[in-house]
Write a structure and sequence with these properties.
About 40% of the residues lie in helices and about 15% in strands. By secondary structure, the chain is α+β, with helices and mostly antiparallel strands. It folds into two domains: about 1-110, 5' to 3' exonuclease, C-terminal subdomain (DNA polymerase, domain 1, Orthogonal Bundle), CATH 1.10.150; about 125-275, Dna Ligase, domain 1 (2-Layer Sandwich), CATH 3.30.1490. The strands form two sheets. Strands 3, 4, 5, 6 and 7 form a five-stranded antiparallel beta sheet that branches. Helix 6 runs antiparallel to helix 7 (about 100-110) and helix 8 (about 140-160) packs antiparallel against helix 9 (about 200-210).
């Protein structure tokens, strides 16, 4: 696996193998830091004596989930090494810290308490926001930004096969320019029904923006958020739902996503997103994409 990833992606990786997630992360750290393991550390191959010796050498701060505050508190209790935490009383650890730390102790002793996630869980909130490249005063330009951000959020929503039941929009000026008039406002709007249709979500977001917008301010940022997210297959059909229309809308969104994925983001977009988008964040100092864009690959010319 390490060789394949190195060859295909160009990234060096290390592997930790152990019966629990916490132990696997611990020996993965060992694989990274100790050359003798050559990038792969298998906890299951160690003897009891080797395990004790290794855990005596590792500071307790190397345990996954033990940050600087917990490290200081553990040291006050006389626990300085991984082995010390492993041998600590789970009951005392729970009283002094939390049930999460108690589970960490159990995991260090080989008891599985934390399940591995084969795929990331669906997000319960999806947000899209950027600062502007220049101050924005006009409502029309704010509409373009909100429509663009909501379109991006809708793509993410469909990608995880979910529907949103409410949208939130906020606007604000630049808080660092204290001499200028300041304004910040946001609002949540529940939707008639959960949806992943970009057109419906953008329409709702623009209606919220029109309610919270105030003229005369130099806006520096807008943002949108999708909330009350449910899985697409959990949608309860309404009494007046037009099943044929819903099917057509789903097919349309699928076609738009497919085209944009094939030919680049924004190939097809709503008119509300605008064309010039002069408000967009400046990206003149962005690092080249050496590993993902052929045009950014450095070419050496012989002289």
């Amino acid at each position: 696996m390490r060789s394949a990833i190195k060859r295909w992606v160009g990234l060096p990786v290390c592997v930790g193998i152990a019966p629990t997630k916490t132990l696997a992360k611990l020996v993965n750290h060992v694989a990274k830091k100790r050359p003798q393991f050559d990038g792969v550390c298998n906890y299951n191959e160690f003897s009891v004596g080797e395990i004790n010796a290794l855990m005596d050498e590792l500071p307790v701060s190397e345990v996954w989930g033990v940050g600087s505050r917990y490290t200081a508190r553990l040291q006050q209790l006389g626990i300085h090494t991984v082995r010390g935490l492993r041998q600590a009383s789970p009951k005392v650890i729970r009283q002094q810290f939390s049930v999460v730390m108690e589970r960490t102790v159990a995991e260090l002793n080989g008891e599985t308490c934390l399940d591995l996630e084969e795929m990331a869980p669906a997000k319960q909130q999806i947000m899209s926001s950027r600062s502007f490249g220049r101050p924005v005063f006009a409502l029309d330009e704010l509409v373009e930004s909100v429509a663009s951000y909501m379109s991006r959020a809708a793509e993410k929503l469909r990608r995880q096969h979910s529907l949103a039941g409410a949208v939130q929009v906020y606007v604000r000026t630049n808080p660092f320019k204290e001499r200028e008039p300041q304004y910040s406002q946001g609002m949540i709007l529940p939707l008639p029904g959960p949806t992943d249709d970009t057109r419906e979500l953008v329409s709702a977001a623009i209606s919220v923006l029109r309610r919270i917008y105030k003229s005369g301010f130099a806006y520096a940022k807008t943002g949108v958020m999708l909330t009350e997210i449910i899985a697409a297959d959990q949608r309860m059909p309404g009494l007046l739902d037009d099943t044929a229309s819903l099917s057509r809308n789903q097919n349309l969104m699928h076609a738009v996503d497919s085209i944009n994925q094939t030919y680049g983001r924004g190939t097809i977009r709503l008119a509300a997103e605008g064309i010039d988008q002069r408000w967009k964040m400046r990206a003149g100092r962005r690092s080249p994409a050496f590993t993902t864009r052929l045009s950014d690959v450095v070419v050496a010319h012989a002289t």
